[in-house]
Amino acid sequence: MKKIWIAVIVIALIIGIPFAWYTISPIFRIVEKDEASPLVVKDAMDSMDAKTRAEFEKQVGAMKDKVMVMNDAMPSAKTISQGEFKPRAHDVKGNALLIEKDGKKIVRFEDFETINGPDLRIYLSSDLSNDDFVELSKIKATKGNVNYEVPEGVDTSKYNKILVWCKAFSVLFSYADIS
After folding, report:
1. In this structure, are residues 94 and 141 in contact, taking their beta carbons and an 8 Å threshold?
2. Collapsing DSSP states into helix, strand and coil, what is residue 127?
C-alpha cells in the first residue's frame, strides 16, 4: 500500500511540476517593446550623412524656381477609432488605436501593460467571447507600444473589440472597445 502511495505522489509530481511551470511562469516574464507609431512621419533629412545632405540641398536650390505638379496624394496615416483597455480577468493599462495608413489598417497598443500568461493572443472580435473573432497575432509584448496588422478585408465596424485572450484556458484577460 505504501508503494502505491509513493508511486501516485511521484506521478503527480512528474505531471504537476511541468503543468505548474507552464501555467505560472509566464506571469513573471515581462516582455517590453517600443515599436514606432504608424502615425509619425519619419524625417528623411535626419538619417542623411553630411555629404548626402549637402548634395540634396544643392539639388533643392537648383529647383527652387521650378513648378512641379504632384499627381499622387501624399501617404497619410489617421486614427479611425480608439479605446481604453478595461480589465476582465487581469489588470491592464493602456489604449488601443485603430489606424489606417496607406490603405492598410493597424491596431496599435500604446502605454500598454498587463501580466503575461500562457498562449496570449490578440483578437478582433464582435463581442467579448471567442465565438466570432479574427486573430491578429500572438501577443508581442506585455508592456510598451506595439503594432498589429489587420488582415485585408476585415470589417472593423463589425469586429470593434480588441481582446487579449488566453487561448490555453479560454480566458479573457482584458479588452478595448474601439467602436
Report:
1. no
2. coil
Q: Say if residues 41 and 75 touch (Cβ distance below 8 Å).
A: no
Length of the chain: 179
Residue 33 main-chain phi, psi, to 5 deg = -140, 155
Q: Give the burial class of 135: count Cβ atoms within 10 A of its Cβ; 0-12 exposed, 13-18 middle, 19 or more buried.
A: middle
Task: Tell me the C-alpha to C-alpha distance, in Å, between residue 72 and each of 63, 76, 86, 102.
Answer: 20, 12, 41, 12
**Higher per-residue confidence, 32 vs 136:** 136
| C-alpha grid cell, residue 145 | 507600444
SS3 79: strand
- 26 — pLDDT class (breaks 50, 70, 90): low
Q: CA–CA separation, 24 vs 95, rounded Å?
A: 26
Residue type, 7: A
Cell numbers given for 17: 511540476
Q: Average per-residue pLDDT in the chain?
A: 86
178, 96 Cβ separation under 8 angstroms: yes
